[in-house]
Amino acid sequence: MKKCLNCLLVLCLITVISCAGQERTDCMVLYVYDGDTMSVLTSSGDTLRVRFDGIDCPEKGMDYSFEAKWYMDSLAYSGPLTLGIMGIDRYGRTLAEVMVHDTISINLSLLERGLAWHYKNFNKDPRYAEAEHYARTNNIGLWADPQPVPPWEYRTWKR
């Protein structure tokens, strides 16, 4: 248990340090679409559709999609949010690491709870790889299934 707390403390510290170079903006949630996408109102009055950078949550209809949305919802509405903006995706959504109270990364929290995959093709952040590895090795969330289907494969099959 002490080892887990130390790991979480280190992850939080690394998160705060790593967000220092990003464009940052404060915002409030307008609507949560799913586990990794929401609309926000920024402090400057802009409305943005935000896609959580570096993760991919289960799609609606997949195992753990409800849990991912519910967990993200509970964190997103729990306090002030700060976006660490990484860029814009091909659909025009703002890619960001989303922080609650400037200390909790929702992106990392979803990975640690086994409610998302690390999107390794688009994100090389070692914190994300570590968080997914932790959930996988401890059979947390979707990793309790011996062969969980990644959302990008599910989307391909659905088409």
What does this protein look like?
This protein is α+β, with helices and mostly antiparallel strands and 159 residues long. Helix content is 35%, strand content 28%. It is built from five helices and eight strands. It has helices spanning 2-18, 65-76, 106-112, 126-137, 151-158; strands at 23-34, 37-42, 47-52, 55-56, 81-88, 94-100, 104-105, 117-118. The strands form two sheets. The protein has a five-stranded mixed beta barrel with strand order 1-2-3-6-5. It has a two-stranded antiparallel ribbon with strand order 4-8.
Write the SSE topology.
Layout: H1 2-18, E1 23-34, E2 37-42, E3 47-52, E4 55-56, H2 65-76, E5 81-88, E6 94-100, E7 104-105, H3 106-112, E8 117-118, H4 126-137, H5 151-158
Parallel strand pairs: 3-6
Antiparallel strand pairs: 1-2, 1-5, 2-3, 4-8, 5-6, 6-7
The major sheet is characterized as: 5 strands, mixed, barrel
Question: What share of residues is helical?
Answer: 25-40%
What structural class results from the helix and strand content?
alpha+beta
Overall body shape = globular
- The number of helices is 5
Give a short overview.
The chain is of the alpha+beta class. The chain has helices at 2-18, 65-76, 106-112, 126-137, 151-158; strands at residues 23-34, 37-42, 47-52, 55-56, 81-88, 94-100, 104-105, 117-118. Helices cover 35% and strands 28% of the residues.
What brief labels describe this structure?
159 residues; alpha+beta; 5-stranded mixed β-barrel; two-stranded antiparallel sheet; 5 helices; 35% helix; 28% strand
